[in-house]
Design goal:
Alpha-Beta Plaits; six-stranded antiparallel beta sheet; 13 helices; 20 strands; globular
Length: 439
């Protein structure tokens, strides 16, 4: 038996972990009872753990074909985005949509229908997926294509429609390995929202929010806009080799930090330092792709910073017409609680797509909290605020939400349950999360 959890390391589960390397291995595993597929374990909660059997998909990590003229890649589900970037960025191609870590598998990116800093323009990962090979409960493989039920339910379906085996995705052509980042500091939450609304034409957009400061400056932030740098924006000495980006130095947390390391004093200090450091660097400057898209990846095992108890993430999306009021209510609840998040990220979302995918047009707020009773009580209040403002929750980040909250927030769930029951999936593809949420 193996003890597994999500990236938050919250409430680990004993399971049998079985690595599969082929379609035949997956079919054989289906005869052993309920299971769930697991990529690189970067979903924050319990969506990729089954107490009976968890399939380790990293053994299916082959890239099968690539068209250098169109950027179309066919690959197995266990391929990491990091591997895609390492192989194809030197040839001028980059993932069209990427989450905040490159250490996710293609299968995991599809199962969560991940979004990035460009959702307001380009949509989610599924917008660039041409087809998905999915194995059902009987071992039959179907190639799901856009505008079909299986395709629609698989994007964002958290692996509960079957095991994703292979996929065809489209990469984005870029001229260099650099991003032109435009840093803009704001002094209030309303100013942060106004800034993001005024810069909707920016290809990439994300804001960090200060969750500690109270009063008029609550929600002050750093808005980081970005666009892929053309060759002529690089220093003349770098233009001959525009993809020759110096590798980032990575650090590793070798031990779990003590729980007392994250307290009111250190959270206040971090938020203040981060804000003022960003404010010192306004305007547009060149940064490498790794720095812009994956700042947390610079510290391997950064989740150990929350101690042995782990952490829980809260991520909701609020519709455009209630987002401003909802964000104020969320930030005020956090400020009053004293349980400030160190990592507080705000993104503008585009139109809703997919049968069960997370995004909708509006704003998404992601917050990390140490796993303790005070934080869990706060998150219950944040749940209620989200539901009151017509929002919903990201299952890829959830580790503790009750079923009644999910049902109140997302009426699409009833259709998802009915589909799973009708197709005989409910008893075969199960996770600790799906059991907790009655999916």
């Amino acid at each position: 038996m193996t003890q597994l959890s999500g990236w938050g390391r919250f409430r680990p589960v004993e399971t049998t972990l079985r690595r599969v390397r082929s379609q035949e291995d997956v079919a054989a595993a289906l005869t052993k009872g309920p299971l769930i597929a697991r990529g690189n374990g970067r979903s924050y909660g319990d969506s990729a753990v089954n107490p009976a059997l968890t399939l380790d998909m990293k053994g299916m990590d082959r890239m099968l074909s690539f068209d250098p003229d169109t950027g179309i890649l066919v690959a197995e589900a266990g391929v990491l985005l990091a591997d895609v970037i390492a192989r194809f960025l030197p040839r001028g191609w980059f993932p069209a949509v990427t989450p905040g870590t490159k250490f996710v598998t293609l299968g995991g990116a599809i199962a969560a229908d991940v979004h990035g800093k460009n959702h307001h323009i380009d949509g989610s990962f599924g917008s660039f997926v041409d087809w998905i090979d999915v194995m059902d409960a009987t071992g039959h493989v179907t190639r799901a294509v856009p505008n079909t039920d299986l395709y629609g339910w698989t994007l964002g379906g958290m692996g509960l429609t079957g095991v994703i085996l292979r996929t065809q995705i489209r990469l984005r052509q870029v001229e260099s390995g650099y991003i032109l980042q435009d840093m803009r500091a704001t002094q209030t939450l309303d100013a942060t929202i106004d800034m993001m609304e005024a810069t909707l034409r920016a290809p990439y957009s994300v804001a960090w929010l200060d969750c500690v400061t109270q009063g008029p400056m609550m929600g002050r932030g750093l808005v980081m806009l970005g666009r892929h740098a053309p060759v002529d924006a690089l220093p003349p000495t770098d233009r001959a080799r525009p993809f020759n980006v110096r590798p980032k130095r990575t650090l590793r947390l070798p031990v779990d930090l003590p729980a007392m390391a994250l307290n009111g004093i250190t959270r206040h200090a971090f938020n203040a330092a981060y804000y003022w450091n960003g404010r010192r660097k306004p305007g547009e400057r060149l940064v490498d792709w790794d720095t812009y898209f994956y700042p947390l990846d610079a510290i391997l095992d950064w989740n150990r910073g929350y101690g042995k108890a782990g952490f829980v993430q809260f991520q909701c999306v609020l519709p455009q017409d209630t987002a401003r009021a909802g964000l104020h209510a969320l930030m005020e609840a956090i400020s009053r609680s004293g349980e400030a998040s160190v990592l507080s990220v705000l993104k503008r979302m585009g139109r809703q797509a997919g049968r069960i995918s997370f995004p909708m047009a509006g704003y998404t707020l992601a917050l990390d909290f140490p796993a303790n009773e005070r934080s869990l009580r706060l998150m219950n209040r944040l749940d209620a605020i989200t539901v009151d403002h017509g929002g919903r929750f990201y299952l890829a980040k959830d580790a503790r939400m009750p079923q009644q909250v999910l049902d109140a927030a997302d009426p699409r769930v009833a259709g998802f349950r009915a589909m799973r029951a009708e197709r005989g999936l409910s008893d075969v593809f199960r996770s600790t999360q799906s059991d907790r949420l009655g999916l």
